[in-house]
């Protein structure tokens, strides 16, 4: 139940987080 939510935001969040983490953290969640 929690893996489906974390995987959905993890696939798109991990790519955006990597580029935003070392660039500019505009949207964290």
Write the topology of this structure:
Elements: H1 2-21
Structure description:
- The chain has 29 residues and is an all-alpha fold.
- The chain has one domain.
- The protein has 1 helix and no strands.
- The chain is elongated.
- The model has no long low-confidence stretch (mean pLDDT 66).
- Residues 1-29 are annotated as: Disordered.
- Residues 17-29 have a biased composition (Basic residues).
- Residues 1-14 have a biased composition (Basic and acidic residues).
Properties at a glance:
29 residues; mainly alpha; 1 helix
Q: Would you kindly provide a brief summary of this structure?
A:
Residues 1-14 have a biased composition (Basic and acidic residues). By secondary structure, the protein is an all-alpha fold.
């Amino acid at each position: 139940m929690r893996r489906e939510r974390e995987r959905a935001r993890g696939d798109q969040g991990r790519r955006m987080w990597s580029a935003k983490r070392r660039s500019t953290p505009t949207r964290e969640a």
